[in-house]
C-alpha cells in the first residue's frame, strides 16, 4: 500500500477514535464511516486499551528488505544480463530458486524460494517457470504420433444433431426419426 493509502486509512481510524470518545457504539461508528463491523470492534478494543495512539499508523505492513538499495540496483542489473552469464545455459530463465541462489552468491543473503518470489515482485519482476522437456525429445516423432495415433485414440465429440441442455425442452424434433417419441411435437396445434 502506498503512503497516501496508509494516510487515508489512519484518517478514518482517527475519526473512529473521535466517535468512540463521544460514546458512539462500534456498530454506529461502522455505519457512519462505512467500515466493516469487524474493523469497528477491533479499533474499539485498540482504542479502549491504548487510546488514540493505538490507532496510529505503524508504517508499511511488509517486512523490511534485507538487501540495501545499492544491492537491489545491482540485482536489477543482474536481471538484464543473460542467465548464461550466471551458469544457466540450458534455458536462461529467472526462476525464484535461481534468484535466491544468485542473491545468496552475490550478496551473501539467504532467501527462501517464496522470499525470492516476493523480492522479485517488489522489484516489478515475476518469476519465470521453465518448460520441462525431456532432453532427448524428438519433436518430429511427437508430431507424427499426434497426427496418426492420437486422432484414432481420442473419443469423438457430441453428435452434430440438434440437442438441448434442458430436460423439459428437448432439441428440435426435425432431427428425430419418424417413429421416435415426440416426433410430431412440432406440428402446429389447431
TrEMBL record:
Domain annotation Winged helix-turn helix: ranges: 90-148
Location of region: Disordered: 147-190
InterPro entries xref list: Homeodomain-like_sf, Winged_HTH_dom
Pfam families: HTH_23, HTH_33
Biased composition (Low complexity): 180-190
Protein name: Winged helix-turn-helix domain-containing protein
Organism this protein belongs to: Streptomyces cinereospinus
Amino acid at each position: 500500500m502506498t503512503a497516501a493509502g496508509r494516510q487515508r486509512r489512519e484518517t478514518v481510524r482517527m475519526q473512529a477514535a473521535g466517535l468512540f470518545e463521544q460514546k458512539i457504539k462500534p456498530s454506529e461508528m461502522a455505519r457512519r464511516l462505512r467500515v466493516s463491523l469487524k474493523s469497528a470492534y477491533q479499533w474499539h478494543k485498540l482504542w479502549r486499551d491504548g487510546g488514540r495512539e493505538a490507532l496510529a499508523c505503524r508504517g508499511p505492513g511488509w517486512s523490511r528488505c534485507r538487501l540495501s538499495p545499492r544491492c537491489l540496483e545491482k540485482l536489477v542489473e543482474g536481471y538484464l544480463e543473460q542467465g548464461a552469464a550466471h551458469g544457466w545455459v540450458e534455458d536462461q530463465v529467472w526462476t525464484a530458486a535461481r534468484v535466491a541462489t544468485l542473491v545468496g552468491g552475490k550478496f551473501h543473503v539467504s532467501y527462501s524460494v517464496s522470499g525470492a518470489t516476493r523480492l522479485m515482485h517488489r522489484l516489478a519482476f515475476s518469476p519465470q517457470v521453465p518448460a520441462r522437456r525431456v532432453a532427448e525429445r524428438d519433436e518430429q516423432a511427437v508430431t507424427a504420433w499426434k497426427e496418426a495415433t492420437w486422432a484414432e485414440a481420442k473419443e469423438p465429440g457430441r453428435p452434430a444433431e440438434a440437442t438441448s441442455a434442458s430436460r423439459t425442452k428437448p432439441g428440435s424434433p426435425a432431427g428425430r426419426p419418424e417413429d421416435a417419441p415426440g416426433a410430431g411435437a412440432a406440428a402446429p396445434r389447431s
